[in-house]
Amino acid sequence: MLALLSPRERAAGEGSLRLEPGRLRLQRGFVAAIDGAAVAKALGAFPGALLVMHAPEDRYVGLDNARRLVTCARRPASLVMLDGADHFLARKEDAAFAADVLGPWAARHVARVREREEPLPEGQVEVREASEGGLAQDIRVGPHWLRADEPLALGGQDSGPTPYGLLEAALGACTSMTVRMYADRQGWPLTRVRVRLSHDQVHAKDGAECESRVGRVERLERLVRLEGPLTEEQRARLLHIAELCPVHRTLESKVDVRTRRDDSSTE
Hints:
- Helices cover 36% and strands 22% of the residues.
- The chain is α+β, with helices and mostly antiparallel strands.
- It has a three-stranded antiparallel sheet with strand order 5-6-7, with no helix packed on it.
């Protein structure tokens, strides 16, 4: 694509491309990052699998570019031709086909990595830095895998929820499960539970419940939506049950967190 820049722009290390439906401004740092030598070096150091998709009718990037990417890969790479597609996957059917190919391909390679990991015992969670580096974290919970990260503005890649987002998700999930189990036991016509949460810090003096505290306190706002032909008494009871979910009680209790150094060998 850099070949589309004028000679003067290439010499300056920045410029703009006319890409339908608009113009793309390429700044100096981006141009340097996508230079052929820089990309080849990055792919040569990348330990993961590589999938390259190319549209033969692409007016901006030629097939030779896709072939070079595959050749530079450290591990065997896959090249998929998207016949009939354009550079932007503008047609819905082309985008859907690319997604249908990408999903199973990625799942296969992820499964290969995870097959080597034994599920953790119940009650244990393991968190480790993702292979991509940065702030991203891979999380194992039993046989399940999760991802945590920070937004771009805070130095992350936004590849997963933030730690506080996961905390809110835990409270929301536990709330919904607790309400559902109680309603089912009572035989009440609860069709769906929806929980929306937000986290903030407030001054202790802003809340009557914080009169004995000083400084700032953590506050989780929880909005519970109960759908179905329930009576007002049933709704009030279910809202009270929401306050009794186990994660809620854990957050309100004094939690004893103990940290020890792990000196076990990783080899």
